[in-house]
Amino acid sequence: MYAQLVKTDGKGVKPLDEMTPEERVFQQRIDDDQKIEPKDWMPDGYRKNLIRQISQHAHSELVGQLPESNWITRAPTLERKAILLAKVQDEAGHGLYLYCAAETLGISRDQMFDQLHSGKSKYSSIFNYPTLTWADMGAVGWLVDGAAIMNQVPLQRTSYGPYARAMVRICKEESFHQRQGFHIMMKMANGTAAQKRMAQDALNRFWYPSLMMFGPSDKDSVHSAQSMAWKIKINTNDELRQKFVDQTVPQAEYLGLTVPDKDLRWNDETGSYVFTEPDWDEFYAVLAGNGPCNKERLQARVDAWNDGDWFREGLLANAAKRRAKQGEAA
Amino acid sequence: MSESDLSKAELPLWEIFVRGQHGLNHRHVGSLHAADAEMAINNARDVYTRRNEGVSIWAVESSRIAASSPSDKEPLFDPANSKVYRHPSFFDIPDEAGSM
Q1: Mutation test of the interface with chain B: which of A108, A306, A316, A322, choosing the one with the most B Cβ atoms within 10 A?
Q2: Please, what CATH class does the domain formed by B3-67 belong to?
Q3: Helix (H, G, I), strand (E, B), or coil: what is residue A267?
Q4: Could you tell me which chain A residue has the CA closest to the CA of B44?
Q5: How much is the average pLDDT of B10-35?
Q6: A244-277: buried (b, 16+ CB within 10 Å) or exposed (e) per residue?
Q7: Domain segments of chain B as ranges
Q8: pTM of the predicted model, to two decimals?
């Protein structure tokens, strides 16, 4: 998902009898569905893990602006341009909500930016793929935002209060993103033969990278088990991926497009689709920095930050000057 | 502040409160970074009211907010527990007395 591979420091879930009294009270609160707030006591591992997860998520929102901003100046109509602009602005907002949530855990936003820029902190692999045609704007909204919603809706119930509240805001806005994407796909799929080919091509290229968004299978992962005990992860990656496929395949059929998976079939017994797993070697390669656009994406973020340096400096100097003037007047 | 300090300095954190509709209280919606109050209000407009969520914005520098800590919970809030007579339901008033 937006946080695809979050490693914990621990070696799995600590049994109750090995916990300190503080840890036991903390786990009890989580089991009772009480929210943990910034000033509450929390285990170091919980804090560290959350910082990693929320900052990965925030970075993904921020970097996620880049593939779509590529098409703002090339949108086919003024209306589509305004819509795309609003969507990309939302992604910036989502990044900001999440950075603020992470900041309540004792890390600053500038520190998180440093971690992104130095490559220490990751963002979702999906944003390292190029957006080659206008149909990709449809596929990104429909599939990428669709997959994001799948993951984010349960996270509204996550145990950390500021994170849960940020997710509530984000989920409220995310549905617009998916629907505008599907709307683009509807237009393209029902357009000229060339437009329909573009829509099919976009689906072909974004299908497996979208399935990768949920991360590799984690049913045996010690990291996942701890995160689930802490309720900062609610479902396994496989559960969410299955749900996404089950929801999306009928939508592709409605569009008259073909999911690029020869072995895709409905299983009557389980009431769900059987599908081909994405190429996990490709996933690890993209995550390690070797996807088609990794260098370009990260460079764009670093440049934006460095090019804004003089401006941030000016803002602070101006604020200091104003404060000094007010001090004189008082 | 020297020049090198300025380039490394972070924009201060502000807490944002939005009045959703006329007649309601301002409510905390989140925080953001801004150099001064004017920028805080402008950023709050973009970050927290993109869909008509508000009619008024307050911005307060986070460092100016005093907050109780979780360990103060008992001395602050427990005394109220024993004063159930502060609630109207404490008093049994017969139906014959009419609405009250």
Answers
A1: A316
A2: alpha beta
A3: strand
A4: A93
A5: 95
A6: bbeebbeebeebebebbbeebeeeeeeeebebee
A7: 3-67
A8: 0.91
